[in-house]
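Bug report (template v2)

What were you trying to do?
Predict the complex of my protein with zinc ion.

What happened?
Run completed; filing so the output is reviewed.

Input:
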Amino acid sequence: MKGAIFIILNQMVEEQAGVEVWEQVLKTVKPKSGAIYTSVEDYSDEELFELVGAISQCLGTPTEVLIEAFGEFLFDGLNKKYPMFTEAQGTFLEFVESVDGVIHKEVRKLYLRPNLPSLETVRLSDNVLELIYKSPRKLCLLAEGLIRGAAKHYGVSYELEHTECMHRGRDQCVMKITVS
Ligand code: ZN
């Protein structure tokens, strides 16, 4: 996982829980990297999951809730850094459709093995989109949080139905997004 993700996680914990919580988490995890993250460098997924586990314990927040909240915070962090991607898309669903073909395509150009999830979208109607997510990391809740962040950015209300899930024995997750 790219250092940028770790940096934004660190920001979220410091902003929402305080620097002492982050320090406590580092004391518990003792990350191999020493927690000095460079945004383009790769760090182990294991380290990220250990950090998330320790934050969850420290705050008494379930991991699932934390991962989704992080997705939302991550959207804002990435959107501040790379605003051109939302600027280029007129609507929330068009933005979701552009993630694989536009954003991830750019990431693939920049990095050799970015380890991105596989994403496919199927537009069922003007206001309904199905997002098909596949990744060995099974971070569909992170995707849900990113989607929530994007919807807020576009000022849109929506419902999300996780109709299939890798955590429920499927080989992919299907998220049906209906904009109201
Ligand atoms: Zn899922």
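What did the reviewer find?
DSSP finds seven helices and four strands in the chain. The pocket of zinc ion is lined by residues 140, 162, 165-167, 173 (CB under 6 Å).
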